[in-house]
Structure formats: C-alpha cells, structure tokens
Amino acid sequence: MKIGKISESVLKRSVLKQIKTKRNEILIGAGIGEDCAILSLKEDEVVVLSTDPITGTTKDIGELSIHVTINDIASSGAEPIGVLLTILLPPESEEATLKEIMISAQKACTNLGIQIAGGHTEVTDAVNQPIITVTGIGKVKRSACLKTANAKPGQDIVVSKYIGLEGTSILAKSYPELLEKFPQTFIRNAAALDRCLSVVPEAVVAVKTGVSAMHDITEGGIFGALWEMAEGSRVGLEVDLKKIPIRQETVEICNYFDLNPYLLMSSGSMLMVTDKGPELVKNLIKENIQAAIIGKITSGNDRVILNDDEKRFLEPPKSDELYKVREKNCERKNTENH
Q: Which of 126, 137, 138, 217 is least enclosed, having the fewest CB within 10 Å?
C-alpha cells in the first residue's frame, strides 16, 4: 500500500466491512468522512477513557490491543462500550495485513460486546512494523467510579487467574525455535494462554461483591502492579509470595529464559482490594475464575514480600522482563549476521 491515508476502497473493504458489533450508546460511529464518534449516556453516567499502544507483527495483535485497553476500563468499575483504533503500517504492508488486524480486533470486540466506533488508518515510513493505538470507551455511574489509589489498611489483596499469562503466551508465540527443548504440546498450551487475557468477567463479579480498588496487571508484572497501587494509595502491603497463583508453563519458560515471573507482563490477571476477600474469591470461583487472597494492605510505607522466613521489600517498577528476551534475541541475530 502507498504512504498516506488508505484509499476509500481499502477502507470500505478491509476496515469498515469488518466492524460487526453495534452499541445503542454510540449514535455515530466509524464511517466514510466521519471524524468523530458521538455517544449518548444517561444523566447519572460518566465516560471512562483509556489509551494504549501495541507494536508487533503477530496475527492476533488486533485482539491483544483491544484486551489490553479494555482491561483498563474494566479496572475502573466501568462497563466497556467501544474503542477508537489508530493503525499505523509500514510502507511494505499489504492490504491483507490490515484486514487481518481488523478481523482480530473485531473478534475481541464481539466477545466483549463492544463497538469499534472510529479511528484512523495510515501507511507511513515512520514505522517499521504495525503500531495500533487503542482508546477504550466505557461508562459508569458517577457514584460507582473506582480508583486504583483507593486501597485502605486492613483490606485483603486478591489476584484473579494466574500471573504472567500475557508474557508467557508472547514468549511461546515469538520464540518457539528457542523453546525446542519443550514438547510441542507444552508450547501450544503456553501460547494459548492468550485466550484468558480479558479481566472484564472478574471485574463484573468484583464490582457486585464490593471492592475499593482494582488494577489490571500489565507491564512490570504483579510486583509492579502492587507497587503502583500501594504508592498511589499511600499505604503499605504484606504479600505471601507462595500464595500468588502462577501456572507451570510460566515457571518453566521463565526459568529457561532466566526471567523473574513476578516482573513479567500479566494482562489477564486483576489485582483487587476489598474488605470481603473470602467472599470475593468464593464468588469468582463460582464463575469459574481462579482467584486467591495473597496478602493485606497495611499502614505505613513498607511494601513487603514474604517467602517463608525470607523478607524483601518491593522496589519501584523497572522494565518488563519480556524486553530482556527481545534484547538478547536481537543481539543473537546481529552476531549471526556478522
């Protein structure tokens, strides 16, 4: 495709034609010549917005980009309504790539019941691989908004599903040739963990049960999310490392790449703070969502991780562990090329 905005025929064929889900709240959505989306909400409702960029070449990048942003919307206690997509493609891209991204994005939107309300698609030599920026749109009653920075001393810290799901899936999909020591079924199972990346279902249960704060666990992993929640709320915490749920695939792949799984991208897992920890876990398990109480919010500023008799203090989030593998792989390829 040529540099610049994509042609009207490509827009109709590979973008607009792929948009299937419609929401009553969106009065005007994506269309030829439409520069804005227009929403209509009830008097006591407010709009919740979040935006995230995703870079990559995997065929499911569209689906991943939707989940990452909509998870942010869900963590505020809001109901997701739709998204705006900005897709930037390098000059060598073919129309089939754009169509694949849209089909993948629409798959996530169908599952979530949300609408692609608009956006922008362009071919530019400023990028060397596809970049998707998603702005998520949600709605919530003004009185029901949740802030990440609303944790209180004495409350239970609950984690849904398993940490490291996103990072494990990305590693299994991106570097299968480096994981040859593992059985193919193991690699396929690890790659398939991306089916669990939405935290919308647990957010619905959490809001009904009663939570003070939620935070979806993304870059920096569970340790990063714990730090951010504690720092924002100006509280301490005490967490039992052995109570943090983690899958065997994550443990083995992280061991292989010498990564810390507690600092690995973890979309698909929600951090929740509540006065009703046991009740929340029970309600989540009723909905077939794994969950565990991993610790307590404390007064003061100490953010403590316990591992049997060992005690360590959390530090501010650093670069995600996933990037270490990418950097080493680039170095390996450069060495091979020379």
A: 126
